[in-house]
Amino acid sequence: AEETLTSRMEEAANAEEESEAAQPAIIGDQQSKLYYPPDCPGVNDVNTANRMVFKNIDEARKAGYKPAKCE
Are 28 and 34 in contact (CB under 8 A)? Predict the structure, then answer.
């Protein structure tokens, strides 16, 4: 029973990692404190030295970043 529990926990952890990897990263600009969704054209203008990568929007917001205006 303990082996089954351990293997199920490992499977759940692996599935969680895979789902996080499937989500595109959110790019934050450390200078302006704005974050850009991956489909925002402005993300290409963020200097690589100022880039901060977040797993999701909530993580970016908790770090004090605001959404960029994407057009």
Answer: yes
